Amino acid sequence: MKTAQDFMLEIPVLKYNDQITKARQILRDDRFREVYVVDAKKNLLGYIDLTDGLRVTATKSNVTVEGFVKEAPIVGPEDPIEQVAGKMREYETDSVAVVDPNPRIIGGVLLSDIFPVLISRNELHGTVAGYMSRDVTSASQTDTIQKVYTMIVESGFSAFPVVKKKRVVGLISRRDLIRTRRVQSVIAHHAHTTIEAMMSKDVVTIGPDEPISSAAELLVKHDVSRLPVIEKDCIVGIVDRHDILSGLFSKRPQR
User: Fold this and answer.
1) Which residue range is the domain that position 229 belongs to?
2) How far apart are CA 12 and CA 18, in angstroms?
3) Are 117 and 109 within 8 A, CB to CB?
4) Pick from 115, 117, 105, 111: nearest CA to 76
């Protein structure tokens, strides 16, 4: 049986009085969507995520992470990966903290690492249409960075498909914003720079009538976290790792 310790890795940790700019530096790494926060005795306080890292736009700031900390999902090193995934689903995170009894953090497990194992050990039934989210908020390639920044911070969504004449031409995510260092300057000065240059243009898509197992395989093959769902050249939904986790755990029938 695979457990948390089989996938545990050393994960960056912040102190509660570290500045938010330090958090942004860590979150620019493609591996991490959350970073964990500890107190002076190294006890786990919680986590902050990419959206929190975007909230303070100044390139230099004395704002600390303490005011952004949220309750973190935690597991023990011996917990099976199904339990680990269940915690991620419950908290809607892409990682969990692995703790000792104190609870001091001793590592972390990433959803991207356990997802291939989970789908190989569990049979997926039904089509993409039965799993996908249909309420899709999209952006336009002519939207400004300021506008998309506001959309991400206010909505809590991690990414938006970029649409031109109802066709998907890209994807813009929190990651795209936080790893582009000039974004803070653009936002602070209310510049009218558009997202076209920073959006991801190589977008993997799937159809609503495709087997959900095919969607899971594409997520693993391309190491992406979400797929726009396209029907007759138009976007009709989004399916991501969490949608598939929800199906695995609920065992609900999918059409």
Assistant:
1) 128-250
2) 13
3) no
4) 105
Q: What is the pTM of this model?
A: 0.87
Q: How many CB atoms lie within 10 A of CB 107?
A: 18
Backbone angles phi, psi at 95, to 5 degrees: -160, 165
CA atoms of 59 and 189, how far apart (whole Å): 12
What is the CA angle 71-149-183, rounded to 5? 105
CB atoms within 10 A of CB 119: 21
Nearest to 112, CA basis, from 29, 25, 212? 29
Q: How far apart are CA 189 and CA 236, in angstroms?
A: 35
Question: Model confidence over 172-184: pLDDT tens digits?
Answer: 988 888 876 666 6
Output the six-digit token pair for 216. Answer: 């899971």
Domain limit, last residue, from 121, 152, 177:
121
Residue the block writes with tokens 């031409």:
169
Q: 230 pairs with which residues across the strands?
A: 235
Number of folded domains in the chain?
2
Q: Domain check: are 197 and 153 in the same one?
A: yes
* Contact of 242 with 155, CB cutoff 8 Å: no
Same domain? 245 vs 137? yes
Kindly report, residue by residue over 122-165, the tens digit of the pLDDT. 888 899 999 999 988 899 999 988 889 888 888 878 889 999 98
Of 57, 88, 121, which one is at a domain's C-terminal end? Answer: 121
Structure tokens that stand for 252 in this block: 């609900």
Q: What are phi and psi of 147, to 5 degrees?
A: -65, -45
